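INFO worker-7 received task bundle
INFO bundle size: 2
INFO processing item 0
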Amino acid sequence: DDGTDTLEIGKGSAHGTTTHMTFDTNGIISMPLQSAASVHLASTQTVATATWTKLALATEKYDKNNDFDSSTNYRFTVPVDGIYFVTVNASFALTAGNDAAVAIYKNGAENNLRFDVPGRNGGHFNINVTAILDLDATDYIEFYVFHNEGSDDTINSSTARTYAMIHKLA
């Protein structure tokens, strides 16, 4: 007890070195080094018709341990085995009768983690996919979009419309 009634687990032998976990008097647990990232497009992204295209999520809101590559591969590399919350949302504006989809890829494959919106009446809409995944260290997660507009289309870059988040749960 250091007088704050907080249980602190850290790295090193001296109090106050790198904190890994704290439990306060209200039972709130803080894990400042727990893997977590929230990313979004830096600008609108052009997507060719009838082609699965990786989202170029180049802007980080946060990336606790630098596990998300936002400059080259636009992917999250799993640092340690565990259960992870993964979500992606993409914003489309399509004409009537066209399909769109969003997918979470694990290690370069889709693994049936997608959501399709067939033949909308047209206009602006968002597609979201959320999963809780059992991942191993060195697995990687990427986010893809698809449409069949007939010509190139753009994905909206608003931080509230096209984003992805990954958080280690356990």
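INFO item 0 finished
INFO processing item 1
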Amino acid sequence: MPAARLLSLILGVFLASSPALAQQRGSIAGKVLDPDGLALPGATVVITNAGTGFTREAVTAETGAYSIPNLEPGTYDVTASMMGYQPLK
């Protein structure tokens, strides 16, 4: 029976530590504003991972805010665009 307890203990420690072994994730968030500092709701924000080419996009809320969660670590290019405005990188 001691071997079974030892195995249970080892399994318990391994399962408890497995979240710590998981890779970290990140997010990109911000606000899109016009030159006068007013929020631009409905602007499209596209992020591109410079290393992999992976892209995701979001549309800004009424406050001009956006958030793109759950991203792999890396360097990202961010572009915001909206009809009537030049795209901003």
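INFO item 1 finished
INFO post-check item 1: The CA atoms of residues 11 and 17 lie 10 Å apart.
INFO post-check item 1: The chain has one helix and five strands.
INFO worker-7 idle
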